[in-house]
Amino acid sequence: MNIGRIALRSALAALCLMQAGMALAQEQKSVKESAPVFDKAFLSNKKHIATGKNVWDNQCRHCHGAAAYPGKAPKLNPGQLAPDFIYERVTFGFGKMPGWKDVFSDEQRKGVVAYIKSRDFSP
After folding, report:
1. Burial class of 121 by CB neighbour count within 10 A (0 to 12, 13 to 18, 19+)
2. Mean pLDDT of residues grouped by 10 in the chain (123 residues)?
């Protein structure tokens, strides 16, 4: 009888720990970084644009570029996209597109935004 109580208490303790861990994981998923402010000075800075072009040429264009397989990913129309929207999609992903937060630095991701919004942008 004593062994049964100990087993029951152990099972309940394990269940409580598991639920607490799942709640913490869910809370961490829901916390997002806020998008940086993209003012005209940032978006027109040649250094930021060059950083973004480098990332675009080596990663993004394979799915979003003019030479990408049709239907692989949406072609971008930068005039219709707000900078913070672009940043959020690049950082956290959407649908089948992965987030690039763990691959590219914040400066690189912000550079992608500057490049896409620049006159130099060419998918």
Report:
1. middle
2. 62 52 49 74 97 95 78 82 95 94 97 95 83
